Amino acid sequence: MADYDKEEVWEEFQTKQNMTSKELEDWLETDESKNAGKEMDNGETIGHSSGRSILKIKSKNKSDLTKANWDKINETVGYYHQNLHESQKPSSDVETSPWYYALKNWGHDALK
Q1: How crowded is residue 59: how many other Cβ atoms within 10 Å of its Cβ?
Q2: Distance between CA atoms of 94 and 78, rounded to whole angstroms?
Q3: Total number of domains in the chain
Q4: What Pfam families does the record point to (predicted)?
Q5: Is residue 112 included in any domain, yes or no?
Q6: What is the three-state SS of 1-55?
């Protein structure tokens, strides 16, 4: 991963992570979550796997985060930058859209 400012990505991560750990955990158990996004070789989607990683990060103290955790936080912030742009938002049926489901897998509920 490229260099990044940990404090900057942490602040944005905290701002965009608008689902509680319980909300994210419950969401990741749904069929919508499990089927949203691009599937990896192991059958799990990239977003679903990321959601599980984000849950682990959310359970840690900031001082206990590893380089891999920081890289995932940075990747997550990059995902938000790409997908929260207004041009990415569907014009209708947001609540049942792949866009909405994918963002929820990454811990952001766009309808909140």
Answers
A1: 9
A2: 21
A3: 1
A4: DUF3140 (PF11338)
A5: no
A6: CCCCCHHHHHHHHHHHCCCCHHHHHHHHCCHHHHHCCCECCCCCEHHHHHHHHHH
Q: Report the distance separating Cα 11 and Cα 77, nearest Å.
A: 10
This model's pTM is above 0.85: yes
Pair 36, 48: CB distance under 8 Å: yes
Cα-to-chain-centroid distance, residue 57? 11
The 10s digit of each residue's pLDDT in 55-108 is 999 999 999 999 999 999 999 999 999 998 888 888 888 899 999 999 999 999
Residue 45 lies in a domain: yes
Instruction: Please indicate, yes or no, if residue 111 is contained in any of the structural domains.
Output: no
Q: Is the alpha carbon torsion for 55, 57, 35, 12 positive or negative?
A: positive
